Amino acid sequence: MASPPLPAHIPVAIIGGGQAGLSVSATLAGRGIEHLVLEKHRIAHAWRSQRWDSFCLVTPNWQCKLPGFAYQGDQPYGFMPRDEIVAYVEAFARHIDAPVREGCGVDRLARDGDRFVLETSGGTLTADAVVLAVGGYHRPSIPRIAERLPEKVVQLHSSTYRNPAQLPEGAVLVVGSGQSGCQIAEDLHLAGRRVHLVTGSAPRCPRVYRGRDAVEWLADLGQYDLPVEQHPLREKVRRKANHYLTGRDGGRDIDLRRFAAEGMVLHGRLDDVRGSRLRFRDDLRANLDGADQVYNGICALIDKHISDQDIAAPPGQRYTPVWEPDAPATSLDLEIAGINAVVWATGFAADWSWVELPIFDGQGYPTHHRGVTALASVYTVGLPWLHSWGSGRFVGLARDAEYLAERISLGLGRTMRVQVARVTA
């Protein structure tokens, strides 16, 4: 059945039908503000299509607190797998009766006088205000060094990895030790595959410490509420890698040293590719030590909180390495190592080329304060550290959406007063 035509004009257009865009939809509906959500694919598209089969949340289910729709299942301290995450977001959309137009991508966003013009795959419409709810991870990022690998080596990005059976027999090289890279390396390792992992500077976090999930302690400490302006790195924290750990099988630490002791081969950063020969930096020890330093720093923060608040808790202890690298080999021959596949867990690149508005900084990132951009009536939501650490997670979206809904309401009021004044002048 064909979709009904788009309206010629809508007060607020929300671009993106994931949990961030839907959260803004819920808060606008609560204020009686007419709006439309434009989703290029389907609701929860990224969860559905860019996650592997064993994927699950790394934060406990109790942190799923979309506006008026907190997690209601029987495992608040569990970790939803991929398909349940999709179901949760879809159920939220039904709960708020979100006005979503699926399969309607925005190809161009520009300004025409006091209004914004949205050229979409379903036609053109105008809006008084626009919310960019498309996140910042738009295109899989694979370094061009990948072009130098032999053609017979199967290459894929982490967003298209599904399970070990997808890859040819033999060893697998995973490039990148952020959350995705470490979890995919673990997935392959648990399946009995020989894994080589290229490490980087991503930090790690304990799963459980002193009797509770570390996320619970950090929430009590207000870490997820800390405004970006109060973080020591300020806005630079938005570009930092997330801590790696997992919610798989009820949740656990990811300890690359333990994997190494079990046979996983760890390398420093990838420096060069010459056919089947790879060269790595001599920074493996520094990468592992740096991750462990952050891990122990989080433990120390929790220890201090327990002591300051005189909380009864089991004793804690610092992590001590279970494996130390020898002088690492800085080169590797793929053929000799039997590596037939490479998974690039190298993140995503932003693509705002379709947004023809003066809202970006010198690096092409939207400039904003709590999602309010430098251009009146243009807002963004769902970006890492939009306002706090919780902004990029389910737990912080309700607060961000409420704040934007209030700003949008005030902005629409000013727009209407200006329009009325012009008509009566």
From TrEMBL:
A molecular function (GO) term: monooxygenase activity
InterPro entries xref list: Auxin_biosynth/cation_transpt (IPR050982), CHP04046_FMN-dependent (IPR024000), FAD/NAD-bd_sf (IPR036188)
Gene3D superfamilies hit by this protein: FAD/NAD(P)-binding domain
Superkingdom per UniProt: Bacteria
Record keywords, A-Z: Oxidoreductase
Protein's UniProt keywords contain Cell division: no
NCBIfam families per the UniProt record, alphabetical: MSMEG_0569_nitr
Listed name of the protein: MSMEG_0569 family flavin-dependent oxidoreductase
Organism: Plastoroseomonas arctica
